[in-house]
Each structure stands twice: as C-alpha cells, then as structure tokens.
Amino acid sequence: MDEEYDAVVLGTGLKECILSGMLSVSGRKVLHMDRNNYYGGESASITPLQDLYDKFKMGKAPESMGRGRDWNVDLIPKFLMANGKLVDLLIHTGVTKYLEFKSVEGSYVYKGGKIHKVPADEKEALSSSLMGLFEKRRFRKFLMFCQEFSLDDPKTWEGVDAKMTTAQELYDKFSLDQNTADFTGHAIALYLNDEYKNQPCGEFIERVKLYSGSLARYGKSPYLYPLYGLGELPQGFARLSAIYGGTYMLDKKEPKIVFDGDKLLGVESDGEVAKCKMVVCDPSYAPDKCKKTGQVIRIICILNHPIPHTNDSLSSQIIIPQNQVNRKHDIYVGCVSYAHNVAAKNFFLAIVSTHVETDNPEREVQVALDLLGPIEQKFVTVSDLYQPIDNGKQNKVYISSSYDATSHFETTCLDVLKIYEIIDGKPFDFSKIKKTEDDM
Fold first, then answer.
1. Looking at the domain assignment, is residue 132 inside a domain?
2. Residue 194 belongs to a domain with what CATH number?
3. Which Pfam family, an example, fits this chain (predicted)?
4. Residue (of 122, 114, 82) closest to 101 by Cα position
5. Which of 70, 180, 199, 271 has the fewest C-beta atoms under 10 angstroms from its C-beta?
6. Range of the domain at 146
7. What is the phi/psi pair of residue 322, to 5°?
8. 211 and 81 in contact (C-beta within 8 Å)?
9. Is 198 within the bounds of a domain?
10. pLDDT tens-place string over residues 120-149
C-alpha cells in the first residue's frame, strides 16, 4: 500500500459507511476496510434465517417459518424519520437511487398499561384516548403553536423566548399535565430522558415540528423503513463512496491504527501500512481510546401475528416512557414484517430495546414483551456501549459512539454529523438540499 489516503475508514457499520460516502463526495481520497467479509458490522442484516439461529446458537430454524432466504433480520433495526436527517443525507448523497422505502403504519405510546396511537396533529389530538376533553384542547393549541413558531418571526413567539424559556415552562404555559408531557417529550420529540425539560425550548419545538412534518409527508406515521432491511443502507453509501473513488477492502486481518510517536501514520493490516491523514472508525477498532458508558439489551422476537392493539398494523413503533414504568430510560419496540421483505409471508419481526439499569436486563423489558402477544422465538443480546474519550482533533482518530437503544435514527445521524463537523471544521449544510417526492 504505497498510496497515501486522506482518510482510512475502519468498519462498515452504517455510521462509518455514511461518513465514508460524505468524505468521498467532498473530494477526499478514502480507503475503507473491515475485518468482516460482509457489510454492516454490529448493525448488519442476517440472511438466511438459519444464519440468525446459528449466530445465537439456537439449533435448526423451524421449517414452519418458511423459506430461509425470505428473511433479512436487522441486528439493530431502526426507523427513519420521513423529514429527518438521515433522509436528508440519503437525498443529498444520491443514495436513494439504490433503495426503496415503505411507510411504517403506526406510532404508539404506552400509558397506564395500554398502548395508544400518538397524536401529532389537531385531528388526532381531538380523537385521542390519551387525554380528556379539556386536555385535548390545550394540547391542540400547543401543537398549533409549535407548528407556527418561527425564530425569524416574533409575531409567532407568544411571549416564548426559545433561548430562555424552558420546555417545562412551555408545558406550563399551555397547562399540559404530566401524562401529556410524557408522550410529547418521549414519543413525539424523541428525547431519551427528562433532562430536556430544564433546557431552552428551541430544540424541543423543532423536534415537535420534525415529527409533525414527517407525519404530514406520508400520513400513517412519521417513520420509514427500507425494503429488504437496513443492510441496504451501508451498502448504498459504500457504492456511493466507490463511485467517487473510494476503495473498499473487506475480510482484512485485524487492522491496527499505527502512530509515529504522537503523529498518526496510518493503518496496518497483513504487514502493510496504508498511510493516511485521518482515521474514522467504530469503537471496536480503537478500544484504548474509548470508555464504556453502559449497556443496551435488544431482544429480536419472531411473531406470526401483528402486535395486538395496533390496528393490525404490518409495522409499528411503540415507546414506553420511563415514567410509566418507574425507570430512568425509555423502552422501545419496533415492528416490521413480510410487507418489508424482511420475513416470510405472514411473519413479523419485533425488537425490544432499552438501556440496562439492573443485573436482570430481560426482566426490565418484560412489560414490552407482554405487549407482543405469543412469541415464536426470541434472540437476546446485551451489548456494551462505548463513547470516544475525546473528539479526535489532536490525534486525527475520529470514533463513532455505539448504537443506542432508540428505535429511530435521529441520534445516529447526530453522531455522524458531529464527527463530520469536527473533521471539516463546519456543520454539514442541509440548506442546499432540495427534496422532492421523486427522491423517495
């Protein structure tokens, strides 16, 4: 490897493939390496079904579950917000031409032992069983305020200073109760905990607008999911990188980041060193530069029926807010099915996930498992979560964080965009992206 690269990217998880594509499009010379012989890393899609059974040492896959090749099981499934940052990235980079998406049919929230459809517009708010009549009216006014709010137009502020007024003060302004705050903050604004309530409300309002705007785009829910599973996403960005001159090398013997003193030299594999100006990688390639921040449990469940009380939806998301089950972290349930070409006919894949808080993680998510009805098979993983110790500016090694428990891609994209901004010195510019229905 006599060539010198602007960047060597290690790992083919979605984050690394997105960054590889972005760096290649921006004119940088990129070499992308992975120790595995497949794309996706820990976020890979598994096919056929027997490979999933083998991975979890579960014996032979039942013949009753149809053809093994009909299954594409994501190890870390997440949905895309229709107006979210990942869709912007897909359109900006042209990766949409490689993919086909289907709308997720329903978004739900858990309250008082039952699941309820999440209201995100005035009509749904008035018909929702989540709130009483007077609370519905107050919530409708709150939604209308958020949708009309603009930092550039003081007439829309109604006495709210987005940089000073906290989210809790905004709830108080509209006299919204704790239950409404629970589903608004966690199932609409998609916050991971309640810390946002004490922060300025500008970001909170934008998150509510994002959910409502995403919902308005397709109507059933704000979420999208690619046909044939998420494994198509990293491969789409890999193809993009290759078009712009990126080089891919899979099945490389343990790549090792090497330094000359404090100066980054490159990446060594098979006795050769690929010299480079920077390295982008997931935590597994630079464990000495990361710290453990917790654990996440994910349980993949095969069902032969839709999740009960979701209107027989072929796909859905359920968020169980922390306060509803006396926890510090929300519990997420995502469900896709044969309608997305990820399961055999009439079968469903549901995944339950949350951040671990006790020494019995599976018991922590029992409330979510109980919502699923009869389960044909479960596949349980408990994974460590890692974050980089520093931002990489000094040693030129830029490391992504582990995938969290959320069932959507917003936190994933925030991590990617943060790394890109550190590398490039300025934020990624979405203002030049023109979205049309032809892009999706």
1. yes
2. 1.10.405.10
3. GDI
4. 82
5. 271
6. 119-219
7. -55, -40
8. yes
9. yes
10. 566 777 788 888 989 999 998 999 999 999
Give the total number of structural domains in the chain: 1
**Structural domain contains residue 232:** no
Reduce the secondary structure of 366-394 to three states and give it as a string. Answer: HHHHHHCCCCCEEEEEEEEEEEECCCCCC
* Rounded Cα–Cα distance for residues 205 and 208 (Å): 5
Residue 437 has pLDDT above 60, yes or no: no
150: left (phi over 0), alpha (psi -120 to 50) or beta: beta
In a domain, 342, yes or no: no
Q: Give per-residue pLDDT as tens, 317-338.
A: 999 999 999 999 999 999 999 9
User: pTM score, two decimals?
Assistant: 0.90
Rg (C-alpha) for the chain, rounded Å, is 22
Q: How many CA atoms lie within 13 A of 88 on its CB side?
A: 17
Cα 189 from chain centre? 14
What's the average model confidence in pLDDT over 260-274?
A: 93
